[in-house]
Design goal:
Blueprint (H helix, E strand, L loop, with lengths): L1 E6 L2 E5 L5 E4 L20 E3 L5 H4 L2 H8 L2 E4 L1 H8 L6 E3 L5 E4 L2 E7 L5 E4 L2 E4 L4 E7 L2 E5 L8 H8 L4 E5 L8 H11 L3 E5 L11 H9 L4 E2 L7 E3 L1
Parallel strand pairs: 3-4, 4-5, 5-6, 12-13, 13-14, 14-15
Antiparallel strand pairs: 1-2, 1-16, 2-3, 7-8, 8-11, 9-10, 11-12
Helix pairs in contact: 4-5, 5-6
The protein binds nickel (II) ion (NI) and manganese (II) ion.
Nickel (II) ion (NI) binds next to loops.
Length: 229
């Protein structure tokens, strides 16, 4: 399996048999992005929540490719209104065995809505994803504050990779993400959701060094960097 970062909270996971999972595809309008959304051809898009910096390019990518969108029912209804039709709706605590692997929707301490014409459209609860793919366990926390749920996830799973927000302001900052990493007992942590906007500027190298003090490995990825596992 290959994991590739596209900036902000957007990752591609390419399974051993070539299935391309794309999480939170915010490319257009992301100053950190190095690619065009037109170049992404996922088989599946997974959405953690409905904020604009996570739904991102979902409508254009899914319209073009016909890929399946995995999301909470409220986002399914919203995106159906945008012309999409290939969905798998899930809700928090629920998991499903897809042909590419197992996906469980996990809790996130955040909100979820999208603004249109000056109104916030409610888009259900925010979430994260716990994925079991090619014998590895991958956790994408979504946008979240530090929560006790992470201790439970860490106790119940052997997490190989955890993508954790570190930007602060809207999510956990570096200090809380360090506590999250230890609660999750992740073998490897990949920081996300930082440096995209001025209010979420963080020093990922400092985070990485601090984690090492606790014996936790950290992989800081620049957009379009990735690794095999
Ligand atoms: Ni958000
Ligand atoms: Mn966000």
């Amino acid at each position: 399996m290959k994991i590739q970062f596209h900036g902000h909270a957007c990752f591609s996971i390419i399974t051993d048999n070539g299935t391309h999972l794309l999480i939170d595809p915010f490319i257009t309008g992301n100053s950190q992005a190095k690619i065009s959304a037109d170049t992404l051809n996922p088989d599946v898009i997974l959405l953690t929540h409905g904020h604009w910096d996570h739904i991102g390019d979902t409508v254009s990518i899914a319209s073009r490719t016909g890929c399946k969108v995995i999301c909470i029912p409220e986002i399914k209804t919203y995106l159906t209104g945008k012309g999409l039709s290939n969905f798998h709706a899930m809700n928090i605590g629920g998991g499903y065995q897809f042909d590419f692997g197992y996906v469980k929707m996990t809790p996130a301490l955040h909100s979820s809505s999208i603004e249109e014409n000056g109104q916030n459209i409610y888009l259900g609860n925010p979430a994260g994803f716990l994925m079991k793919i090619d014998g590895k366990t991958i956790y994408h926390a979504g946008d979240t504050g530090l929560s006790h749920e992470m201790t439970l996830l860490g106790n119940a799973n052997r997490i190989d990779v955890a993508m954790l927000p570190i930007g602060g302001n809207f999510t956990m900052d570096i200090n809380d993400a360090m506590l999250a990493a230890r609660a999750l007992r992740a073998k490897l942590v990949v920081p996300m959701h930082y440096n995209t906007f001025p209010v979420i500027e963080q020093n990922a190298a400092f985070f990485s060094n601090q984690l090492l003090n606790y014996g936790v490995l950290c992989q800081v990825l620049n957009p379009e960097d990735g690794f095999d596992m």
